[in-house]
Design brief:
The structure holds two protein chains of two kinds. Chain A is mainly α. Chain A is built from twelve helices and no strands. Chain A is about 75% helix and about 0% strand. The chains are: A mainly alpha, B mainly alpha. At the A-B interface, helix 2, helix 3, helix 4, helix 5 and helix 6 of A face helix 1, helix 2, helix 3 and helix 4 of B.
Chain lengths: ~220, ~100
């Protein structure tokens, strides 16, 4: 139950983005079952938008699949980072848990794990609550073909505001601030050269060892 | 049928990077430097997600400090910093963004 409650900002954000996605896909000629099946089998927001645009303009399937791969490769980092927190989880749950790893579920689960009193069952429930909200809202968008006017109540900003808050929760000392700032700046500059999702992956991959350097530095000082 | 095959392909390339680290890393005793590195991943990922979202969301696609996305982030940041409340921050963020869109739009 706590997993469901903790998922509310994600559900709010997914509701808005999912509806928008469903409308866009329906207008590009996708049927509701096709939209639902994509949300179920792929379950990755930004790559679904790109796929609809690409498939809608007649791009060959291998190109769409390759693009999907590059956009979603960043989950590799998130899955690695979650792994040490899931030691107690039975292996049979791993495939089901991995399916639900997204930017949003990762950010909320990591924050909860760090705060303590959060275990793999809650995290698993949170993942699938968010997944349910995504599938439902994308299909609802495809079904109605119209939705709450874009920007109503600032709902488009729900996930951004959630990320901002979870980012602040990460600032345990100055090293985390430095790493986040560097990752942000790298991602910003890289996104002028390559697609945004890949820029996020490379930016965070390059910036995260910086914190380690500072840690070694302070460890060395302590050793002396 | 062709569409289902496309989805299976997209699903597979999305799913495998989500699964592999979990399967291979969760039961292993990881070296200290690696665990140290993993600790910084959330901060790095969130920084890399947030900054381009705030600065590149304008219609021009260029860096803009005057767009509602960035301006709304200022009260959102301050509120998150002062209260550490996720629910409050999401509401303040949405409210600021909505207001700024009305004022600027």
């Amino acid at each position: 139950m706590r997993g469901v409650v903790a998922a509310w900002p994600i559900c709010l954000g997914y509701g808005a983005v999912g509806l928008a996605f469903g409308v866009l896909a329906a207008n590009s000629g996708f049927a509701v079952w096709q939209i639902g099946l994509m949300s179920l089998l792929v379950y990755a927001g930004s790559s679904q938008f790109v796929a609809v645009a690409m498939a809608g303009s007649g791009m060959p399937a291998p190109a769409v699949i390759l693009t999907t791969f590059t956009i979603n490769l960043r989950h590799l980092l998130m899955s690695s980072s979650l792994a040490p927190h899931l030691k107690e989880m039975d292996r049979k749950w791993q495939p089901l848990f991995a399916y639900g790893i997204t930017d949003e579920s990762f950010a909320v689960n990591m924050t909860r794990f760090a705060g303590g009193n959060w275990g793999w069952p809650e995290a698993l429930v949170l993942n699938h609550t968010a997944n349910f909200a995504w599938i439902l809202s994308t299909m609802a968008g495809g079904y109605t073909g119209q939705f709450v006017p874009p920007g109503a109540f600032g709902i488009d900003y729900a996930l951004t505001a959630m990320f901002i808050c979870l980012l602040i929760f990460q600032f345990k000392d100055y090293r985390f601030v430095l790493v986040a700032a560097l990752a942000g700046i790298l991602a910003l500059f890289l996104s002028f050269l390559i697609e945004r999702a890949l820029a996020i992956l490379i930016g965070s991959f390059l910036a995260s060892p910086l914190g380690l350097f500072f840690r070694w530095n302070s460890n060395l000082k302590e050793d002396r | 049928m062709e569409y289902v095959l496309l989805l299976l392909g997209m699903g597979a390339v999305t799913y495998l990077p989500r699964l592999f680290p979990l399967v291979f890393l969760s039961r292993r005793e990881l070296p200290r430097w690696f665990r140290g590195w993993l600790e910084f991943i959330p901060a790095a990922v969130l920084g890399a997600l947030v900054l381009p979202q705030l600065l590149l969301s304008g219609p021009s696609g260029k860096v803009s400090f005057l767009c509602p996305h960035f301006l709304a982030a200022v009260p959102t940041f301050i509120f998150a910093w002062k209260t550490a409340s996720l629910a409050g921050t999401v509401i303040v963020g949405m409210g600021s963004f909505w207001l700024l869109n009305r004022l600027l739009g």
